[in-house]
Write a structure and sequence with these properties.
mainly alpha
């Protein structure tokens, strides 16, 4: 297991380096940022500004300086186009709680619902309840989350007037206050639809397969009721596949919700990432790209390792 983990970590770091290098080169090949085109018509002002930001150097030199600052000082630079007087890590740290709270509430509410719907559909397999849930799952998985966001915003916020179109600011309420939670509910609903649908599908598929296994028939012949056999044996075996998916969802809460945050005005790192791409703020873009990539790769490793802890019979990386 240790050898397997070390190998996966090494591959993760290599993949992270390749992706970050590609993103650095591609973002610098884009046309110069709007603010550089608008600082004045005098070409000398443009040259001075680019020289101050180090953009006149070659891409290789800029990338070398970028890596040297990170590994030597842990410095990701200041904002080039936005938050010019603040460090990138400082601004990300200020906006991170919004993203964490939003995604955490979404997962906390979505996981129990997904498990319940999946179990209910498996127990009612091939009945009208199962068909209805399956159709809804296909719909919610196929439709992008931003479509739900617009529907939720239109129905709950605009038509019914239950919520504000945008979440409250910290000046109005604390990030963990009931008022803030209530204002985040439309965004939480929009994020949760896909998670509920995906977890329902996996739970239904795994539990349906386990319920038709031979050991379940043996358990019933020994006198266990259907409920006892399901809770003692079927759910336990189905969770071997379902739990890693849930763990992956919790690991991925930091990955944010790029479009949802923008629609509901959530001042998190997702909306900051979109703005950095539009403004071509290289430092913010690279810091958030590395962050998102690292979280995604780490989540994959944790999911794979969790199989071995959930079921000791599974040995990751074994040749036999």
């Amino acid at each position: 297991m240790v050898k397997y983990v070390l190998k996966r970590v090494a591959l993760m770091l290599l993949t992270l380096f390749i992706i970050s290098t590609m993103c650095f080169v591609l973002i610098h090949l884009l046309p110069e940022a709007p603010i550089l085109r608008g600082i004045g018509k005098d070409p000398n002002l443009q040259v001075i500004e680019r020289e101050r930001q180090g953009l006149n150097d070659s891409i290789i030199a800029q990338y070398g300086r970028f890596l040297a600052n990170i590994f030597a000082y842990g410095y990701w630079g200041n904002g080039l186009q936005m938050y010019k007087t603040s460090e990138v890590t400082e601004i990300i740290g200020q906006k991170m709680p919004y993203t964490i709270v939003l995604n955490l509430w979404s997962i906390i509410l979505s996981v129990p619902l997904g498990l319940l719907f999946g179990i209910y559909a498996a127990l009612r397999k091939n009945r009208w309840q199962d068909h209805l849930i399956s159709v809804l799952v296909v719909i919610f998985i196929s439709v992008p989350s931003y479509v739900y966001a617009f529907l939720v915003q239109y129905i709950l916020c605009f038509k019914l007037g239950w919520f504000d179109l945008q979440i409250k600011s910290l000046a109005d309420a604390s990030i963990m206050s009931p008022a803030m939670f209530y204002s985040m509910l439309p965004a939480i609903f929009s994020l949760g639809f896909g998670t509920v649908a995906g977890l329902t599908r996996y739970t239904r598929a795994e539990l349906s397969e386990v319920l038709t296994s031979e050991f379940m028939l043996l358990a019933r012949t020994k006198g266990l009721t259907k409920r006892q056999a399901t809770t003692r044996h079927a759910l336990k075996n189905a969770m071997v596949v379902i739990l890693p998916m849930i763990i992956g969802e919790f690991i991925g809460i930091l990955s944010g919700s790029l479009i949802i945050e923008g629609i509901f005005g959530v001042p998190g790192i997702g909306s900051l990432y979109i703005t950095s791409i539009r403004m071509r703020d290289y430092n913010f873009f690279m810091a958030l790209t590395v962050f998102y990539t690292f979280i995604g790769l780490l989540g994959g490793i944790v999911i794979d390792i969790s199989y071995g802890f959930i079921d000791p019979r599974i040995r990751m990386g074994s040749r036999k």
